Amino acid sequence: MVTEPTTEFAPAKINLCLHVTGRRSDGYHLLDSLVVFAGTGDRVEVAAGQGLQLSLAGPEAGALTGEAENLVLRAARSMGVSNARLTLHKELPVASGIGGGSADAAATLRALARLTGLPLPGPQVILSLGADVPVCLAGRPARMQGVGEVLTPLHGLPPLWLVLANPRVPVPTRSVFAGLVSPRNSGLPDVPAHALRSADAFAGWLAAHTRNDLVTPALRVAPVLAEVQAALAADPACLLARMSGSGGTHFGLYATAEAAAAASVALGAAHPGWWVVSAPMIRS
Predict the structure, then answer these.
(1) Catalytic residue among 42, 104, 132, 213
(2) Which of 57, 95, 96, 260: disulfide with 278, CB 3.0–4.6 Å?
(3) How many CA atoms lie within 13 A of 222 on its CB side?
(4) Statement: residue 16 has pLDDT above 80
(5) Tens of pLDDT along 91-118?
(6) Under a CB-based contact definition with an 8 Å cutoff, are residues 103 and 13 in contact?
(7) What is the rounded distance in angstroms from the CA atom of residue 241 to the CA atom of residue 247?
(8) What is the Cα–Cα distance from 136 to 15, expressed in whole angstroms?
(9) Which residues does residue 153 pair with via DSSP β-bridges, in sequence order?
(10) Could you give the C-alpha distances from 38 to 17, 114, 281, in angstroms and in order?
(11) Domain boundaries in the chain?
(12) Closest CA to 162 of 12, 44, 10
């Protein structure tokens, strides 16, 4: 327990691949995904206060104005916290397939646990906040299965850098899942040891043996995503370009920070209306 305000980083969540393997009777989809985190994201600051107050700041905060039930507030209530000042510094675009809201909720839980000394909620409560909240709370590379509750650590990843690009077109997750032709597809193979030897080997294995089953329905929701994919894939230094989650953020994998930074600058200049950033992949 601490008495001073405390801040938690809420990194962008990247689905390197996403296989949809089934659908439960309650409508929730079963997933099989390799998830990593980027060194860019939102920040949540918590401090003692009277009542539960949420302030929004940052370049992407405007998209959340007027949202009555922000995940940050829901996370605080799930811990039984009724007195705290919360500030969400929003850097990630909303409805963008990189887990911004889930990462914010997870950061809120971590920060409030430090501030108040209260335990984290149980697994079912955490999952009720969103399918991505458990993996965001763990904050480390993982294979995510079930409806998001089954996590297996993913060790030994090679150094990689990311370029993230979003055309600033919200892509509602529910609409994308509703457009799936079939919710029952093959799961992921295990990652072989040889795929972890280098950035090239890992990207090549991902390209050959994994996919994102939500690409086709996402393109029907937002056709501009094809342009984002093509722009990333056109860079010879990009090892793999793919959509993250349900869209509309795409990522490019790079072997060096310099190549990723150069690609980010060039892509941002060519598409000034897009959200574009480069960042390291967090490996532990």
Answers:
(1) 132
(2) 260
(3) 27
(4) yes
(5) 999 889 998 899 999 999 999 999 999 9
(6) yes
(7) 13
(8) 12
(9) 142
(10) 15, 23, 5
(11) 6-152, 155-282
(12) 12
Residue 68 has pLDDT above 60, yes or no: no
Under the banding of pLDDT at 50, 70 and 90, the label for residue 4 is confident
Query: In this structure, which amino acid lies at residue 60?
Result: E
| Closest to 142 measured CA to CA, from 33, 241, 243 | 33
CATH annotation of 6-152: 3.30.230.10
User: What's the predicted TM-score (pTM) here?
Assistant: 0.95
* Annotation marks residue 132 as catalytic: yes
Average pLDDT of the chain to the nearest whole number: 95
pLDDT in tens, 112-170: 999 999 999 999 999 999 999 999 999 999 999 999 999 999 999 999 999 999 999 98
CA distances from 75 to 69, 79, 139, 260 (A): 10, 7, 16, 34
CATH topology of domain 155-282: Alpha-Beta Plaits (3.30.70)
DSSP string for 129-176:
T-TTHHHHHH-S-EEEEETTTEEEE---PPP-EEEEEE-S----HHHH
